[in-house]
Amino acid sequence: MTGEDTGAPIRVFICDDHDLVRRGLRSFLETEPTVEVVGEATSGEEALTRAPASRPDVVLMDLLMPGMGGVEATRRLLERVPDTRVVVLTSVVTDEQVLPALEAGALSYLLKSAPADEVLSAIRAAAHGQATLDRNVAASVVRAVRQPALRDAAAAAFTAREREVLLEIAQGKSNQEIADALGIGIKTVKTHVSSLLSKLNLYDRTQLAVYAHTHGLAGGS
Fold first, then answer.
1. In this predicted structure, what is the pLDDT of residue 202?
2. DSSP characters over the chain
3. Each residue of 71-96: pLDDT tens digit?
4. Boundaries of CATH 3.40.50.2300 in the chain?
């Protein structure tokens, strides 16, 4: 049950590495009696440390941050506080960002160019479990509906070694750690990683890890 459901303000946590963005959001949201800003973070790592203790109803999450990005932060945060709603508020709208963010559990996806009132409406909607998607995201979502079948077909074509490498990636291991664990060269690991990315039409290791977790290929982790 969210704050608004009980008559209390919606508790919002802001995660963005740009100080100006955080200050602007806080200044705007603090003018709204139905919203309470309960915390801020400048990185995914900091969000995981601070947000759970703040008990937010809604987290405004940037995607492009130094260190842990918003996609991985979203996935891990929702593992810890599953009742929290994540609204992505970022500057990018590509399949490589949209799909993994939604797969990681983000409810809504807005661009930073959105009007302030639209952001506020998205926060209120998220507090009630209702999604808000920027109109530019629609095409990515449509493609995402078709994508699982294509990716499942690609997964069926994984070699045994590729599955082993994917499992290690899902456990957060580096290329060198994977090479050591599997007894193969680091160049061979890089080749397998590139093959996995190509077969699944994914962009980076974080997306591979998200894919492995959401498709039951992470060894039960």
1. 77
2. --TGGGTSPEEEEEE-S-HHHHHHHHHHHTT-TTEEEEEEESSHHHHHHHHHHH--SEEEE-S--SSS-HHHHHHHHHHH-TTPEEEEEES---HHHHHHHHHTT--EEEETTS-HHHHHHHHHHHHTT---B-GGGHHHHHHHHHHHHHHHHHHHT--HHHHHHHHHHHTT--HHHHHHHHT--HHHHHHHHHHHHHHHT--SHHHHHHHHHHTT-STT-
3. 999 999 999 999 999 999 998 777 67
4. 4-140
Tell the CATH superfamily of the 4-140 domain: Response regulator (3.40.50.2300)
Q: Residue 124's pLDDT is what?
A: 96
Q: Which fold has domain 157-214?
A: Arc Repressor Mutant, subunit A (1.10.10)
Binned at pLDDT 50, 70 and 90, residue 221 comes out as very low
Predicted confidence at residue 171, as pLDDT, reads 83
Which residues belong to CATH 1.10.10.10 in the chain? 157-214
